[in-house]
Specification:
370 residues, 4-stranded antiparallel β-sheet, Aspartate Aminotransferase, domain 2, 2 domains, 7-stranded mixed β-sheet, Aspartate Aminotransferase, domain 1
């Protein structure tokens, strides 16, 4: 007799059935330091203004020209260089999926350093592209020789470079990246610079594109408003050569950005000074947190250019897991990345929070290490 469950899944791809769904940790009542969110809300007066704006939106209509207004506002915000186009995504995740879809020709490949953002590989797999992960060095730097060899052998359609990287939070050597871009560009591949954490970084590849547009003619740059302070509205954007952006934009679902999300983003771009001050506070807190973590025995923090950092525990193989559980018992939620990749063995990833949240994190860590 046929198993009803097996029959119901008959047309679900086997690789999809073998996958694990993305799990969001329950955070009610916790100090939430697991998802690289901006911990600051809008000031009350701006909350009231935004509420009035959203209340006046015509939610009975599909998104229209307001989306174009948002694209123009973002182009002004980034000072979009001549010759580049801009498109919107429902978060950077959608943009990554659309890129995989656009490049899904026979035998196409996607390559990225690892550990890195899981969606690069997942989106490639779901679109039928081969994914190639190239391990970083032990100190989380690009292994240029290994990258160059893998690129030469496979000629990937897309090479992702997260700048700074998630979860390691570091910026890689610019000269190395320039050489890799030259190599990939020579056979017509694309390098995608993923700047999700740009508000907290000391450098942006957009400045490199402005400085030498010819050398970066095969480069796309992605950003998101999630780390800007709007993780809840799911809005990403990508800039690159107009002709290429036009082709990828053909795959974008109609009305992929809602009128409410667009109005939130436009409102935020009218108050960039508020979010810039929040980012400055986070950067200052990041340095304080890093210095404090350096004083704790039994852990090694890694310097960060994002709003997170990796912390490695010494001791046996379960030291990070035990610390994670102690932190949870103290109502502090971080990300246990120790099983994500061999290079992250015994590591936790911490989001930089408010001063009070960081103080609670340090107190809980001290307890975990005692």
């Amino acid at each position: 007799m046929t198993n009803p469950t097996n029959l119901a899944l008959r047309f679900i791809r086997p690789d999809v059935q073998a996958m694990h769904a993305y799990v969001v940790q329950h955070s009610a009542g916790m100090v939430k330091l697991d998802a690289m969110e901006n911990p600051f809300t809008l000031p009350p007066e701006l909350q009231a203004q935004l509420g009035a704006r959203l209340g006046a939106v015509d939610i009975n209509r599909y998104p229209g020209t307001r989306i174009d207004d948002l694209k123009h506002a973002l182009a002004r915000y980034v000072d979009l260089p001549a010759g580049l186009g801009l498109m919107l995504g429902n978060g950077s995740d959608e943009l990554i999926s659309l890129l995989s879809m656009a490049c899904a020709v026979p035998n196409a490949k996607v390559l990225a350093p690892e550990p890195g953002f899981v969606m690069y590989g997942m989106s490639a797999q779901l679109q039928g592209l081969q994914y190639i992960g190239v391990p970083l060095t032990a100190d989380f730097e690009l292994d240029e020789v290994a990258m160059a060899e893998a690129i030469a052998q496979s000629e990937p359609a897309i090479v992702y470079i997260a700048y700074p990287n998630n979860p390691t939070a570091n910026l890689w050597n610019a000269d190395t990246i320039r050489r890799l871009i030259t190599q990939v560009s020579a056979y017509g591949g694309w390098v995608v610079m993923d700047e999700a954490y740009q508000p907290f970084s000391s450098r942006s590849w957009l400045d490199e594109i402005r400085r030498d547009p010819n050398a970066n003619a095969q480069v796309l740059l992605m950003r998101t408003l999630s780390k800007f302070g709007l993780a809840g509205i799911r809005l990403g954007y990508m800039v690159g050569p107009t002709a290429l952006v036009h082709e990828v934009d053909k795959l974008r679902p109609p009305y992929n950005v809602s009128v409410l999300n667009a109005e939130c983003a436009l409102f935020a771009l009218e108050h960039t000074e508020v979010f810039a001050q929040q980012a400055a506070t986070i950067r200052a807190e990041r340095e304080k947190l890093f210095n404090a973590l350096q004083q704790l025995p039994g852990v090694t923090p890694y310097a960060s250019e994002a709003n997170m950092m990796v912390l490695r525990f010494t001791g046996d193989a379960d030291a990070a897991h035990r610390a994670f559980e102690v932190l949870k018992a103290h109502k502090v939620l971080v990300k246990n990345v120790s099983k994500m990749h061999p290079l992250l063995a015994n590591c936790l990833r911490l989001t930089v929070g408010t001063p009070d949240e960081n103080a609670q994190l340090l107190a809980a860590l001290t307890s975990a290490l005692s």
